[in-house]
Amino acid sequence: MQWIGELAVSALILIGAFFLLVGSFGLAKLPDMMRRLHGPSKSTTLGIGSLLIASMLHFAMASGHVSFHELLITIFLFLTAPVTAHMLAKAHILRSQADRNSLPSTGRPDGWATLDVPKRAAEK
Amino acid sequence: MAMRFFPHPLLTVWIVAVWVLLANEVTFGHLVLGLILGILIPLATSAYWPGRPRVGAPMMMIEFMLVVLWDIVVSNIQVAFLILFRRGDSLQSRFITVPLDLKSPEAITVLAGTITMTPGTVSSDVSADGRALLVHCLETDGADETIAQIKHRYERRLKRIFE
Amino acid sequence: MIAIACQIAMAVASLAILLNLYRMAIGPDVTDRVLALDTMVINAIGLIVLLGIYYGTTLYFEAAMLIAMVGFVTTVAFCKYLLRGNVIE
After folding, report:
1. Angle between the A45-63 and C30-55 helix axes, to the nearest 10 degrees?
2. Chain A residues close to B119, C-beta within 8 Å
3. Which residues of chain C have pLDDT under 50?
C-alpha cells in the first residue's frame, strides 16, 4: 500500500518535471514570438500542477491530514497564466509591424482593441 | 436588507473559500473570520464593482470545469509531441477571428481564459467593441473547424451558464 | 524512491531554467525577454516545491505562493508599461 503511493508520487513528480522541460524547450526552440507563447503558458502550468498534486499526495500520506495550500497555488497559476499570455500578445502586436499587417479583420466596423478605438467613443 | 450586507454574494463565497484554503484547516474560528472578511471587503470596495454578472445556472459550471480539465490534460500531450518532434518552421500557425455571441465581460473573460488554457490556441486580443476575439493557433489545417469547435464546446456551455 | 525522483526532477528543472536563460540572452525583442523571465519564475516555483518534498517540510509553500503572486504582478506591470507607457495611469 505504501509502495503504490510512493510510486504514484514519483511518477507525478517525473511527469511534472518533463512538462516543465517541454515548455522551456518550446520557448527556446520555436522561431516566432507568437508561437513561443504557447509553450510556457500551457505546458509549464500543467507541469507545476502535476508537481503540486504530487506534493499533496505525499504530505497526505506522510502526515495523515490533507493540506490544501498547494491547490491554492495551482488555482492561482491556472487563472493568471492566460492573463500574462494575453498581455504579452497585445504588447507584441503593438510592437511588431510584420505581425500587425498579418492580422485578420474583425468582421465588425471597429478594429482590434490594441490598435483602434471603438467608433462610438471616438465620436465624443 | 440582505442586499445591503451582501452586495456581491458570489464574491463573499469565494473570499470565505480562499481564506479557509489559506489557513489550511477547516475550523469554526477560521470560518467566522473568513465570513467577517467576506462581508467587509465587498462592502468596502463596492464602488469599484459597478455591475453584477448574471449567473443563470451555477451547477453547469461544474460540468464546464470538468470538460476544461479533461481538455487540458489530453491536448497538452499533443502539443508536447508537436514541440518536441517537429521543426518550428513547418508548423502552420495563423491568426483567426472568433465572432462572439456572449455579451457580459465576465463571460468573455472566462471564454478567453479557457481558449488559452486548452493547448493549440492562445487568445491574443479583443475587438474594440468587444464582439470578436483574436486567437492564434499553433497548428491548424482549416480556420473554420477550429472556430466551430471552440463555439460548440465552450461558448455553448458558457451561454447556458451566464444567461 | 521519492528522493531519487526528486533529484532527477531538480536536475530537469534546472535544465529548463538554463534554456530560459538562453532565450533571455538571445531573444530579439523585449517581449521575448519578459516571457523568458516569467517562465523562469514558474520554474523556480517548481524547484521550491521539489525542495519541500525532498526535505519533508510544508514550510516552503508560503514562499512558493508569494513568489507566484509577485512574478505575475511583475509580468503584468512590464507589459502594461510596454503597452501604455505608464504602469498606473
Report:
1. 10
2. 38, 42-43
3. none
